[in-house]
Design brief:
It is a single chain. The protein is mainly alpha-helical and 48 residues long. Helices cover 96% and strands 0% of the residues. The protein is built from one helix and no strands.
């Protein structure tokens, strides 16, 4: 019984870590995207 609980806890912690990792990657990608869009818009409006 204890072994089953430990395995269940480990798998749930692993899935939590995977979800948090994907969220972190998503936020990093979003940040890079917004910075690049901001730079593109700045360069467009600087030329005109």
């Amino acid at each position: 019984m204890d072994n089953l609980l430990q395995r269940d806890l480990g798998s749930s912690l692993l899935s939590m870590a995977i979800i948090l990792g994907w969220l972190g990657l998503f936020f990093v990608f979003l940040r890079i995207l917004t910075i690049s869009i901001k730079r593109i818009l700045e360069s467009i409006f600087k030329k005109s």
